[in-house]
Model the fold of this input.
Amino acid sequence: MHAAELPEHRVRMLRRNCPMAETTPRQVLLRMLPSSVAAARAADALLVLRFRPGQFVLRGEPLAAIVPADNAGALEAVISRAIHIGSHRTLTQDSEFGIAQVVEIAIRALSPAVNDTFTGVACADWLADALLTLAERPPLEGNWYDTGSQLRVWMPPVRLERLAKLAFDQIRQASATTPAVLIRQLDAIRRLAPRLPDACRRALSDQADAILETASALVAIDRHDLDAAWHRAHTAFEALPAPRAASRNTSA
Done:
């Protein structure tokens, strides 16, 4: 469910009533989520957050919606306390930012002006480790239920497959003529595949195929090494078990 899909007459759109949110674009930090679930349950309402932590908010954009609209009064103060608007992204609740920082280091290193292959390879390793660390945490699907299994808070989810795409895309694009980095990415995919959740498998498989396509201009000897790395990665995918069912987040 998304705010845009809710019936207009049942939704109260809320904007943060402070100059920072109304006049200056900022980044979102969400806090006190359990208390927001409890407050939504007490008001018998659904709180729909339009941004996840770290997303950029344009001036005057609505931050949240309350359904039904007549229950908005009881939740406006809760939303004001729960959503913090800041001028910079931080690693707090914003795992996407950490991935983006390492990607930025890699693509700067791989630029023609620098041409630092070793840093690009190292970044591929550290990004793989970061994805593994994130996979070991409980998944954040964006749906928060009360103890009665009623949906009370929704926000855009931070999906691991999105982070995997972020970790590979731009480095792959910057490495079309740098086989060492592409091969290291394929090796990371091979090693990650058995250890990441089922939902992330398709993203990793797509990245492996994209790397193979990116390398079409490589000389024969480099292409041979990359093809071998691609086959090792897909062999790892073929050995994986069938997907498992997903779980819920419950609070309050």
Summary: The radius of gyration is 21 Å. Residues 1-11, 16-25 have pLDDT under 50 and may be disordered. Strands lie at 12-14, 26-30, 46-49, 56-57, 64-67, 83-86, 143-145, 151-154, 249-250. The first strand starts at residue 12 and ends at 14.
